[in-house]
Amino acid sequence: MKKTSPEVLELKKQVEARLNRRIKTPKDFLFLRSAIWDINHEIISATTLKRLWGYIQGADETRCSTLDILSRFLDFKDWEDYLNHIDQSDGSNPIRSFHISSDTLKTGDRLSISWKPDRRCILRYLGNSEFVVEMAENSKLQVGDTFSATLFILNEPLYLNNYVHDGNPPVPFVVGNRDGLCELKQII
User: Are residues 10 and 37 in the same domain?
Assistant: First the structure.
């Protein structure tokens, strides 16, 4: 199977979602290799993973045995079982990535979010799915801006509703449009 096929790309995305971590550095590939061993007691080399993720050059095709191991890591029987699951899917899936829902927050709770290339904000929850920006670095969002949001999902764009900046009328706004949020955590 070509490592650039939609099925393989989706498999890699789901592996990253299960780990709650993007796989892009040598340390990440070692982490994934260890996680596969810890969960499934299967051995896969970090070099194989690096080739599959395109971190190093290698064959355009991926071995079925590699896809089987990654499919089992996602709790499927094997690659074929994973493909059958995708074929039966209607494109709708539960969110498996780390996420924070506004209905789990209390008034005054704070979130830290960041996105590429170097944007970072601290948000304070006002209640009723409303937030205010408390700190902003390198972002169009500025201290004092307000917006509504119900769900923050790691590695996905953040869609803001009723974004108010500098007293202007509320507008919809997207944060991390290209790569999504690369950091999402509640500050205690």
Answer: yes
Once rounded to an integer, what is the mean pLDDT over residues 1-7?
A: 80
- Please tell me whether residues 114 and 178 are part of one structural domain: yes
- Whether residues 56 and 115 share a domain: the answer is no
Same domain, 22 and 67: yes
Q: Is the dihedral of CA 130, 134, 135, 138 positive or negative?
A: positive
- Residue 51 is encoded by which pair of tokens? 């080739």
Q: Is the dihedral of CA 148, 151, 155, 159 positive or negative?
A: negative
CA distances for 56 relative to 22, 64, 79, 157, angstroms: 16, 19, 23, 27
Which of 125 and 177 is assigned the larger pLDDT? Answer: 125
The answer to whether 129 touches 123, Cβ cutoff 8 Å, is no
